[in-house]
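Blackboard transcription, Thursday session:
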Amino acid sequence: KQEVTQIPAALSVPEGENLVLNCSFTDSAIYNLQWFRQDPGKGLTSLLLIQSSQREQTSGRLNASLDKSSGRSTLYIAASQPGDSATYLCAVIIVRGSWGKFQFGAGTQVVVTP
Amino acid sequence: NAGVTQTPKFQVLKTGQSMTLQCAQDMNHEYMSWYRQDPGMGLRLIHYSVGAGITDQGEVPNGYNVSRSTTEDFPLRLLSAAPSQTSVYFCASSSTGGGRPNTEAFFGQGTRLTVV
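(Written on the board underneath:)
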């Protein structure tokens, strides 16, 4: 069974520091991997999608890497801002038979202090 | 473009009552799914669908029913509500290629359900 783990569960950094969020998965046979942001009481907002054939994706201050062989993905957020405070979740898409399913990690709660 | 719309946003049920959580998307996505989110448990897949008339069970399907008669709508039915079903429910959709979700997933804003 695919297990998705995000460490640490919580992280607090001062404004301006770079954020490094980790996601690990046990089965390397993933279809793709997606990073999300969730604000309190809200739904999930997609940040980056990495196809299984890709090694990284970038959007603005965000960069996500994917290493399928080691079962790891890392989300980097450069020059953090208080507005980056949220919970960040990763999800892998696993293929079972003809269909695919998302499997989520429990998330990393980030607080960026001014 | 409304994206994924869930109704209601909040609901309180008594044990044993039934209800339907609504989910609609306007992006013509084939893949739709329901999750529940509980503290310390992350998001767990309840049911999913890869097109009208095609549904399958996820990780925690017991106590829930789904059907998909149109591409746009994917309602989740609670047959006889139990306190263990107190949770936040999210609906998501994405496009597919060969039945596999290969594009980014879009989520609704969630339904916060309390069963007393």
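Lecturer's comment: Chain B has no helices and 13 strands.
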